[in-house]
């Protein structure tokens, strides 16, 4: 059965559904646990803070793994001079042929915009980076960052606005992530060898500690026990007969007209790098780029 940990964002995305998967926000320790550097966690009521200093960063992971659904959390990014730092929020399966959906927030010098890098791995192959700036300052307040995932598409959303869509094009021989359960992870760490201007700007530790803040942890997805096989997972998390999941409904198979317009606006005004346009890295355009129109 679907985990019941979500309400408002699901309703915003799919008004009026009455299928398995409806829930509400949960406390951090209901869904997650610290993965490393427990002493760099700060709990302030409903807000969790991760600290990066010149000794360590910190990270957490979900207690369970999921196939299909929606994952959201509200994050307030490092204020001030955050050059060299990365706050990562992602879903990933295990193993060398893993699937992964990434949000990576790349710090910058004071006054410069944060860059949000998204990436997607399928069967262990990534190199699908896109970068954009945002239409707000993500260090001043909390904003919602989400991944919607079903058999038809993977959608990256910021405050319920789609910023990237990866469509299932298996009919064209392009692999799609649909049979590996994923955990949910987040961390803050030092990446000044590449994060800011390709590594030219280093972390200024005089500004440490660097703090990323979290709240509003939401997972509305199909929970998959570790013992379940890949075939069983796929059957368990698909609608069949009277078992209906909201993520399998026809309205979830593609963006609405309004969402499509939002995506076009975001990419026209905020996209600063797209691997599909990088002929230096890819003299031959990646196959999926020939078919994706967003």
TrEMBL record:
Its EC number is 2.4.1.207. Keywords: Apoplast, Cell wall, Cell wall biogenesis/degradation, Disulfide bond, Glycosidase, Hydrolase, Secreted, Signal, Transferase. The active site is at 100 (nucleophile), 104 (proton donor). Residues 17-214 form the GH16 domain. GO terms for cellular component: apoplast. One of its GO terms (molecular function) is xyloglucan:xyloglucosyl transferase activity. GO terms for biological process: cell wall biogenesis; cell wall organization; xyloglucan metabolic process. SUPFAM superfamilies: Concanavalin A-like lectins/glucanases (SSF49899). It holds the Pfam family Glyco_hydro_16. InterPro entries: Beta-glucanase-like (IPR000757), Beta-glucanase/XTH (IPR044791), ConA-like_dom_sf (IPR013320), XET_C (IPR010713), XTH (IPR016455). It is an enzyme of class 2 (transferase). Its main location: secreted. Glycans are attached at residue 108. Residues 1-25 form the signal peptide. Contains at least one intrachain disulfide bond essential for its enzymatic activity. It comes from the Eukaryota. It is found in: Secreted, Cell wall; Secreted, Extracellular space, Apoplast. Catalyzes xyloglucan endohydrolysis (XEH) and/or endotransglycosylation (XET). Cleaves and religates xyloglucan polymers, an essential constituent of the primary cell wall, and thereby participates in cell wall construction of growing tissues. Belongs to the glycosyl hydrolase 16 family. This is Xyloglucan endotransglucosylase/hydrolase. It comes from Hibiscus syriacus (Rose of Sharon). The lineage of its organism: Eukaryota, Viridiplantae, Streptophyta, Embryophyta, Tracheophyta.
